[in-house]
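Fold sample X.
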Amino acid sequence: MTTDGALARLIRSAADRTTAAVAEVCDLCAAPVADEHAHLYDIGQDEVRCVCGPCSVLFAGAGAGAGHYRLVPRRRVRLPHVDTTVLGVPVGLVFFVPRMDGTVTAQGPSPAGAMRWEVDAAAWQELAGTCPQLATVEPEVEALLVNTVHGLDHHWIVPIDDCYRMVAVVRSEWRGLSGGGRVWPAVERFFEELTERP
């Protein structure tokens, strides 16, 4: 994951809330975009790009973007508890992204950005057998987002841009070696503000 484009703007805005807001523009045509706007996932660069309404329409159909860009969906689905221990990732704040090639990656936030691990694809399929909604996660652009830190039990299917927002929250609030007193309340607020969307 690089820190260019939309992700960099998310990190900068979360890191310095006192700075005046900079008007965002479409990363394709440079037209201004509204506060609530669509995103494209650039598969080759592994980053999210902001797009205006007209540009987003160009990528709405199946096969649009020639396999390089995928329109990030908006749906969010709250799941019941999902036992992710079968995936072998020993952290409580993580998101799992199935890829177009059948692999699955786990990414966890850190003060330096997202750490990435490869997850056994057969273990992901086994987990999807116990939670059929996981089979509906769109490769590259949706993720299973999990927070079990401090006894919490949050499991969501979310768009990939939500995951990058969560990483930006951790980067902006982390202090010292252990994170300090601000990071976990900020993460809890992030999850409290998630709402289901079709």
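Fold sample Y, listed below.
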Amino acid sequence: MNVLTDNWSLYGKGLLGTVELTVYASLLALVLGFVMASFRVAPVGSLRVLGTVWVAVLRNTPLTLLFFAVLLGLPRFGVVLPFQLFAVLALGCYTSAFICEAVRSGINTVPTGQGEAARSLGMTFTQTLGAIVLPQAFRSVIPPVGSTLIALAKNSAIAGSFSVTELLGTYKTLNELGYSIIWSFVWIAVGYLIVTLTISALFNVLEKRWGVAR
């Protein structure tokens, strides 16, 4: 226990950093994911191509490589931001591709007749998507979206290799201070368990409240 009790502040900063990365990147991923899912089912061909390319590129790019591309590539174009914000961009964009596919699958579960009925009443594509399709799709995508955001929380560990304060990065300081590396990782694992179980509990509540009964 001394590894934890002697380093409350260090573990606290690491856990807070992981929580902040998870929350901000999750918000970005959800927004981009829903937008790209809308693009993928849009009647405009150019939007469908954009959505398809976005998903194909990001889903097939290693996250570590994406971190390098964001942290080293954007400054070459004059975009200079704090490392944490770069990490949020990398994590959020990467995860948005998986959110997009989950939402698109949910959209496909909505009977096409409902969209056709909405258009026959004079509703635009945006109105049909926002008022008819997405609310129903949301109910069926709660579990996969929750699983994706849990994966995002664990993927945030990569940010520690890029000078971003997060939980896994605390082991370096603890190792330098001479603490047991095994127990250092045990308490790091407990921290990640707290984050992931919190996300799981939140989505369990959402699923019970709005999920599709099976």
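Sample Y note: The chain has one domain: 8-210.
Also: The two ends are 44 Å apart (CA to CA).
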